[in-house]
């Protein structure tokens, strides 16, 4: 099984939902939420793609970075490369039902673990989705992370406790899910959080707490004030607010302002090792990969997820050699030009 056969299988099984396009830039699926696309005009998904694409590498070939180090540490765990599986839900209404919710969670959690990294599970209007995710994590001895929708705090804390019971590595909230159409469809109340709300959530657990969906320096600083362990610079794959900046547009300023006080991860259009390296050069400690894991699961189940991640890992290794980068934990800003 290689990445082309995984994508081909996914394309066949996701007819009408995803083109598994050669260039996954948000054009084919624009406006498809529910579905695989970005919301409205699809511009926020496209901006993730464009802002990354416009960053170019400075090639370097006279150096001794022959065997770059890809290992890093996150939430106290050593991972083989700094790429985590993003939380994703809604196999039926977003992906066309090529796998069940239960199968998807197992594929991602196990596929990530087998590739030497950590997968996340998400939350949606159907409460069963979160439970399937926790079951997959429990089956893998707690090796996974749970991201909960910005429900009422009492509902979030209930789910944090369930996640703790499953033995998860970390918990968090996708704050950018505050106005999600898919939650509305299920009649589930979600909304924005105040700093006080966030403080209450951080206090509710001893686990590292993640705030996913931070796109400004101001809100990154608020997360520090609330005691958040890690932020994910993300516009939710362009699915929540049309005409949003791309993650790569805002990441560098956020890292400059808060990078020494809080862990900063990023996501949006990570499709290759080059994309990972660009986000690392902008200052991220690691990245999340979303849609490609859907192709992996639907196109090749656990092995498909592994194929996707291992391909990205190998590309990252090659690209580090060609930019003279020795260690993923010390990527120089000078390897890129905007
Ligand atoms: C179909 C679909 C479902 C998603 N569901 C969730 C979710 O339940 N929770 C969440 O935090 N993010 C969710 N996301 C956002 C991803 O976690 C991630 O931020 C985004 O997909 C990254 O962009 P990429 O797909 O371009 O890599 C979803 C994304 C997609 C495409």
TrEMBL record:
The keyword Oxidoreductase applies. PROSITE patterns: FMN_HYDROXY_ACID_DH_2. Its cofactor is FMN. The keyword Acetylation does not apply. InterPro entries: Aldolase_TIM, Alpha-hydoxy_acid_DH_FMN, FMN-dep_DH, FMN_HAD. FMN binds at residues 212, 234, 236, 267-271, 290-291. Glyoxylate binds at residue 239. Transmembrane segments: none annotated. GO terms for molecular function: FMN binding; oxidoreductase activity. It comes from the Bacteria. The active site is at residue 236. Keywords: Flavoprotein, FMN, Oxidoreductase. Residues 37-338 form the FMN hydroxy acid dehydrogenase domain. Belongs to the FMN-dependent alpha-hydroxy acid dehydrogenase family. This is Alpha-hydroxy-acid oxidizing protein.
